[in-house]
Structure formats: C-alpha cells, structure tokens
Amino acid sequence: MNIEILSIAKKEKSIYDPLNKELMKMISRFAKIEDIELFNKDVTKAHTISAEASKEAYSKLFAPYLAKSFNVILHPDGQLIDSYEFSKLLDGRIAVKFFIGGAYGFEDDFLKKGDSIISLGNITMSHKIAKVVLLEQIYRGFSILSNHPYHK
Questions:
Q1: What's the distance, Cα to Cα, between the start and end of the chain in Å?
Q2: What is the β-pairing status of strands 32-38 and 70-80?
Q3: Residue 4's closest CA among 39, 32, 30?
Q4: How far apart are CA 18 and CA 14, in angstroms?
Q5: What is the tens place of the pLDDT at every residue in 117-143?
Q6: Are 76 and 119 in contact (CB under 8 A)?
Q7: Is residue 110 within a helix (H) or strand (E), and if so which, with residue range?
Q8: Do 6 and 62 form a contact (C-beta atoms < 8 A)?
C-alpha cells in the first residue's frame, strides 16, 4: 500500500520532526509512506488577499494529487470516527492520500472531490500537530488490521 500525507506547509524544521520520523518508520512495516508539504508563492500571495483566495490557492496546489487513490480530507466539519472506523479507511486499499489544509481550510468544491472527509476532533490544532495525530492513527489503524497489540 502507498500512503501520502499532503499538507499546506512551509518546509521547515519542527520539534515534531523526530516523532514524525519515528511514526513513519513504524508505519513503513505496513505501507510505503510519504510526507509531502506544499507551499508556493501563490499561497503566500493569497494569504495577503483573503480566506477565499487562500482556499482557492490550496485547491489548485492539491488538484494534481487527487487522482488514482482513495482521498481522505481532514476537515473540522468532517465525520468524527474512532480508531476502528479509521482502520477501515486503510483496509484493502492500494493507495490512500490524506489532505491537511492550510490556515483557512478547504473550498467546498475541493471537499466534494474527497472519498472521505474526517475530523480528528472538535478542537483546532496546527497542521504540525494534526500530522502527528494522523500518523499515530495510521499506525494504530494498521495495528488493528493486523491484530498487533499496540492498539489495546
């Protein structure tokens, strides 16, 4: 299985990098995983214009990545699911892509292109923390699917 995590983020060092690296290593026992951070001058410019312009810039940046996979979009209004339901998002798939939006979220049209829209909870968190939570849930999901004791 191939998993890609795509986020609107500047490539910069973070205190979360060692944890992300460790979780990605753990996940690699089950799937090939790639972390793709996207940010360009159009996003930078859009941030100075408006929230709507920013959402549009995010959609344009993410658009080429939507094909040939099961697309899961993380969104505050998405479905709240538990770890067992999360594991079903991974079960039997060849490729799964997770999309983490920028500061202004997603356009409605982009959300309609997702196969599943989920929320990591009712609290707001930075994309860096959301990525750590997502990585942990991906590992937990694979643990559930393979009856590994980690999830207990």
A1: 24
A2: unpaired
A3: 32
A4: 9
A5: 999 998 888 889 999 999 999 999 999
A6: yes
A7: helix 108-112
A8: yes
